[in-house]
Amino acid sequence: MPETVAGPDLQPRLQAWRGRADAALERALFSLRHGEPRLLAAMRYAVLPGGKRIRPLLVYASGHAFGAADDVLDAPAAAVELIHAYSLVHDDLPAMDDDALRRGRPTLHVAFDEATAILAGDALQALAFSVLAESPVDNGRRVAMLRELAGAAGADGMCGGQARDLAATGKKRGQSHFLDREPEATRHLPPKNDSDPFSSFPPADLERLHAMKTGALLRAAVRLGAIAAGADASARMHLDRYAAALGLGFQIRDDLLDIEGDSATLGKTAGKDAAQAKATFPAVLGVEASRRRLAELDDEMTGALDALGAGSFAPLRHLGRQAIERSH
Amino acid sequence: MPETVAGPDLQPRLQAWRGRADAALERALFSLRHGEPRLLAAMRYAVLPGGKRIRPLLVYASGHAFGAADDVLDAPAAAVELIHAYSLVHDDLPAMDDDALRRGRPTLHVAFDEATAILAGDALQALAFSVLAESPVDNGRRVAMLRELAGAAGADGMCGGQARDLAATGKKRGQSHFLDREPEATRHLPPKNDSDPFSSFPPADLERLHAMKTGALLRAAVRLGAIAAGADASARMHLDRYAAALGLGFQIRDDLLDIEGDSATLGKTAGKDAAQAKATFPAVLGVEASRRRLAELDDEMTGALDALGAGSFAPLRHLGRQAIERSH
C-alpha cells in the first residue's frame, strides 16, 4: 500500500477494522445452531480466512468519516462480505465461471461438492440479511440498510451484472460448458485484430455491466457505512460519485491484473478472461486506454471526496487509491 | 378441496387472495428495471404462473385472523413465495435433485440453462428481502418480518434442512450424480426389508430435517401474517404449534403422494424419492404409521387453533386440512 496516501497511523487502523470484520463474520457463523455440519463447514470455508476485505473496510471507512462508532459498523461490514463471499462461491461453479482456484485454495465446489456449494451460497446470502436485521441501530436505519443491500445484490445489481457478463462472453448457452471452452491461452493478452469479437462492443455497455456486477456491492458498502452513521442526502450523493468511480476502477484494475499478473500472486487463475473470451476493459478499450480511464477515475474519486469538505476521509482516499493501484 | 371444511364463502376468498399474491409478485418483478432480459425472463418463469400458492395463502389467512387488511399482507405474501420459488429452482439443479419436470413444465435449468437458473434463484432470494423492506407497515414490523424470513430461509432453516436431506440420501458426494443414480424404479413403494438403508434412521431426525426443509418457510408464512397484523406473543405461540404441525403434515402428505400419485396429477416426477433412495416418512415409518401421524397432526392443528379462542380461523383450518388431504 502506498505510504504517500496512507499516513503512518492508517495501516494499524485498517488492520484493526479487518480484525473487527473477521470477528463479526465469526460471530455470524457461530450464531447458526441447527445447520448441517457439512453446510456450516462449507460456509466457514467460503468466508474464513478472507481476502482483502475491501468491502468491510469501505463500510468502516465511510461510517467513520461521518462519525459512526466502530461497533455500529460491524453488522453492515459482515453483511456485505457475506454477500460477496456467496457470489464468489456461485460464480466459481462449473455452470458459471468453472474455476478451481480462489484465494490460493481449491474453490468450494472442488473442496466440498457442487450441491453443498450451491446451498452454502444460498445460506450465506440469507445470513447477510439476518446479520443486518440485528444491527445496533434504530429500525429506520436497519430497514434502509436492508433495502440497500437487497437492491445491490439482486437482479438490478450484482446478479444482473453477472447475467450481463455471461451474455457478453463467447459462451454458448444451453450447451455443455466443456464443449465450447477454448483451449487454455498460452499468453494472456486478448486478441486485438479484425476477428476480435469485442471490437464493436460499446465501452458504455461494459461500464454499465461492471457498475452492476462489481460496482453495486462496492457502492452498497460505502452507502451502508453512511446510512449507519446517519449521513445526510447531500453527503451520500458525493459518496455515490466516489463509490461509482472506485467500483469501476477496481474492475479495470482486475482486468489488467488478469493480463499482467501471475496465478501465484493473484491467488486465482491468471489469463482466464482471454481464455474464456470474456468482455474485459483491455479487450474492449485496449490496454493503454484502460490505464488512462483508471487515471480519470482516480481524479473523480479525489474530486468527490474534496466536495465533502473537511472530514476524516483519509481511509476512503487510501482505499480508493489502493483499488486502482493494487498488484493482486 | 373438501367443502366440509371450506364454507361456501371461503373458496372465493382464497381465490381472491391467490389473485392478490400473483399481482404482488408481478409488481415485484416489474419493479426490476436494469436486469438482463434473459435473467428477468427466467425469474418470471420461476414465479408465474404459480403453484398452489400455499405460503401466500397462509400469510393472508394468518394476518386476516388477527385483523390485518389485505394490502398490508401483499408484501410478505409475495416475499415468502419468492423464497419458495428460488428454492425450487436450485433444488431442481443437476447437482441437487436433478429434476426435469416441475408444475408440469420443464424445470428452469432445462428451459434456460444452468447458469441462468443459479443466478435467477439468487436474484429471487434478494428480491424477497427487497419486497419485504417496502411493506406498508412501520419499521419495527418490517425488521421483525425481515428477521423472520432470513432466519427461515438460511442455514438454520430451509437451506440447513436441504443440506440434511442431501446428507441423509444414498447420494454419494463428490461423484458424478449420473454415475451413482439408481435405475428408475418401476414401482414406487420404497423397500421395507433387511437391506433398507433407513430401517435404523430415527423418525425424530426425519421430523427435524423436514421441520427445517419445508417446515421453516411454512411457519414463517404464518408468522409473517401475524407480525404484519401485530398479533401478541401468546397468540404467536399457538400459531407456531399450528404451523409446525401443518409443515410436518404437508411433508408427510408429499411423501405419500410420491408413492401413490402419478406424474400427470402431481405435475412432477412421481416415484422419484424411492428411485433416489431419499429418506422419506413412508420409508422410515412405513405407510400406515405415516398415515396415523397425519391424523395426529390434524388433531394438533385443531387444538392449536381452538386455543386461540374465537376468531376468523376458518381459512387457517381449511389450509391445514388441505395440506394433509391434498391429492397433488
Automatic annotation (TrEMBL), chains A, B:
SUPFAM superfamilies: Terpenoid synthases. Its cofactor is Mg(2+). CDD domains: Trans_IPPS_HT (cd00685). One of its GO terms (molecular function) is prenyltransferase activity. The keyword Calcium does not apply. Transmembrane segments: none annotated. Residues 170-202 are annotated as: Disordered. The keyword Magnesium applies. Keywords: Isoprene biosynthesis, Magnesium, Metal-binding, Transferase. Signal peptide: none annotated. Residues 178-195 have a biased composition (Basic and acidic residues). Pfam families: polyprenyl_synt. GO terms for biological process: isoprenoid biosynthetic process. Belongs to the FPP/GGPP synthase family. This is Polyprenyl synthetase family protein. It comes from Luteimonas salinisoli. The lineage of its organism: Bacteria, Pseudomonadati, Pseudomonadota, Gammaproteobacteria, Lysobacterales.
